[in-house]
Amino acid sequence: MRLLIRRTGLTRPHGVQARRSTWIRLLSTEILHAELLPDRQSPHYVQESTSLSSLVWDKPLENVLIVKKPWDHNVRESLIQMASHIQRRYPRVNILVEEHVADEVQKQIGAAGVTAIHTGPGEVLRNKTDLLVTLGGDGTILHATSMFASGEVPPVLSFSLGTLGFLLPFDFKDFKTAFDMVYSSQASVVNRARLACQKMSIRKEITHLPSQSHIEHNSTHVYGNPDDYNLSPLTYAMNDINIHRGAEPHLTKLDIHVDGEFITRAIADGVTIATPTGSTAYSLSSGGSIVHPRVACILLTPICPRSLSFRPLIFPATSKICITASSESRGRGAELSVDGIAKGLVRPSDKILVESETGHNSGIWCVAKTDRDWVSGLNGLLGFNSSFGKGGEASGDVA
């Protein structure tokens, strides 16, 4: 990609139109490096009397990262429309996009009067973004938040332009009103918890694997000897963390400890550990409960377990979960994914450590329409308790 593409000047038309005393402006857009922008600022959040909080900027919003569903014509047109409005109505606000999006829109966005957009590598965008705007479906939100999977996420304003919109309270037709509410510190937000995940990989030079029975019966040694493991960087999940057998023909054997206590050995296709937000995703498809986003908890749901008595579990949000791939597992091991992004293999005796994210501004602050957004999504999108009869009305007829 060529950055710093300059806006062209004026040119005199040729032919018949040359007799007219008019000028035609050939429009183009400067694509600038996001490194030129001021560093990100974080708003603060004030608890309202309802279940929501207020988003308040300490100084005017400056940098807005717009993340779109890829290579979709309607979404591309929506991005151009929104960028044009923001630059015209809020001239001091800078528009940021991913590098591949800058390539996608640069030929069209100039015609809409957008004079400049900023882009750069993911690390640069993370350090500059004040507000995260998504145009697409729930998958677009997961992609956008995964860009901040190693740190704090900016507030998220999402518009429904995708297949499924359980996390998307706003229709795109309302983007001007919604953005103005955020810009003027009049928006309400709901906090969605994230899970922190870390992998402990057995060192290759270890010639003996840690004793599984020792781990099972001695909770003080759940994590084993730290010198025997390599510790991965922390990564965060908005939806879920999945440990799955993948292409392996054999069931996985996963030893599950919670707060140092041995719970069970899961012999299954795998397990999913989910947030309340993720309770309506893979966990739900695996038979897990639907949980309201304000309930502080962690869901642990088996995926196709061999035992019919292995039921989904819900733990307090303060719980610390350790899942160890049993040394008795057959094959290469299980596959680890965080919010659908592959994170490599979990080999026999590797451990996955999971707990709720903590710290200042932990979780993800999502701009909300009302405090009934979750109920509307439950009924309207999931068709909760709908009958199989004509019209699909909810069950509950009184005899």
Automatic annotation (TrEMBL):
UniProt keywords, alphabetically: Kinase, NAD, NADP, Transferase
Please verify whether the record's keywords include Signal: no
BP GO annotations: NAD+ metabolic process; NADP+ biosynthetic process
- GO molecular function terms here? NAD+ kinase activity
Q: Which InterPro entries match?
A: ATP-NAD_kinase_N (IPR017438), ATP-NAD_kinase_PpnK-typ_C (IPR017437), NAD/diacylglycerol_kinase_sf (IPR016064), NADK (IPR002504)
SUPFAM superfamilies named among the record's database cross-references? NAD kinase/diacylglycerol kinase-like (SSF111331)
Pfam hit, one: NAD_kinase
Family listed = Belongs to the NAD kinase family.
What is the name attached to this protein's record?
Answer: Uncharacterized protein
Originating organism: Yarrowia lipolytica (Candida lipolytica)
